[in-house]
């Protein structure tokens, strides 16, 4: 038995093949889809992966809008001097990256095709999870959400943290595989694999569209 086969058997023994239900009231959450990830002048930038994900994000947003499915956005913003509302994460660990999200920095503007409409909700955060210290749970409850479709940047960071908290707040998280981006394919794919095993359903863009269409018709 190969190492991979042994690993697959171990995961199956531990996590099984259970699946979260896809409900009748899905909401799309677009996580941190900002210009900085796509601009070579920004430290957030990485070639290929983020642009590929942006194209899928745009398609997913457009599809949800056309079907009348609510679209919610989350984004980071530091509005205090030296990012004090970002705590030690900003002050010590990642100041050279997180200052990208300082209020007024053009890098934190939404990426092309990912700009919220005037009737769509934007939840501002200071940490990785879109739920931590925000009104996200109340927003989703107000929308009647039972299934949260997640996409955005980065897969191993803010997407993963948000997906974990979505599960912990009682919303069944589904992740759009192609609509998530990270700095390297291995990091991206490992994070998607881990989320699928433990606390979400990771599905292709095509599969998500099929699920959404069925929910709308139900």
From TrEMBL:
Superkingdom of origin organism: Eukaryota
Ranges that cross the membrane: none
Keywords carried by this UniProt record: Hydrolase
Domain Isochorismatase-like: 27-204
Keyword Hydrolase: yes
Pfam family, one: Isochorismatase
InterPro entries: Isochorismatase-like_dom, Isochorismatase-like_hydrls, Isochorismatase-like_sf
PANTHER family: ISOCHORISMATASE HYDROLASE, PEROXYUREIDOACRYLATE/UREIDOACRYLATE AMIDOHYDROLASE-RELATED
Family: Belongs to the isochorismatase family.
UniProt name for this protein: Isochorismatase-like domain-containing protein
């Amino acid at each position: 038995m190969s190492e991979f086969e042994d690993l697959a058997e171990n995961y199956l023994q531990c996590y099984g093949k259970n699946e979260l239900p896809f409900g009748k009231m899905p909401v799309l959450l677009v996580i941190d889809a900002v210009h900085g990830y796509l601009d070579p002048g920004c430290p957030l930038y990485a070639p290929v992966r983020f642009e590929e994900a942006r194209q899928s994000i745009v398609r997913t947003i457009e599809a949800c809008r056309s079907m009348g499915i609510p679209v919610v956005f989350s984004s980071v913003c530091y509005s205090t001097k030296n990012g004090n509302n970002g705590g030690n994460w900003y002050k010590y660990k990642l100041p050279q990256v997180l200052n990208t999200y300082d209020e007024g920095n053009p890098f934190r503007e939404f990426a092309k095709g990912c700009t919220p409409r005037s009737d769509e909700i934007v939840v501002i955060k200071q940490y990785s999870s879109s739920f931590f210290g925000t009104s996200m749970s109340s927003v989703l409850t107000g929308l009647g959400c039972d299934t949260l479709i997640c996409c955005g940047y980065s897969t191993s960071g803010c997407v993963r943290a948000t997906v974990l908290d979505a599960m912990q707040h009682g919303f069944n998280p589904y992740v759009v595989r192609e609509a998530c981006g990270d700095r390297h394919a291995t990091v991206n794919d490992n994070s998607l694999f881990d989320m699928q095993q433990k606390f979400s359903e990771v599905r292709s863009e095509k599969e998500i569209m099929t699920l959404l269409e069925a929910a709308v018709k139900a």
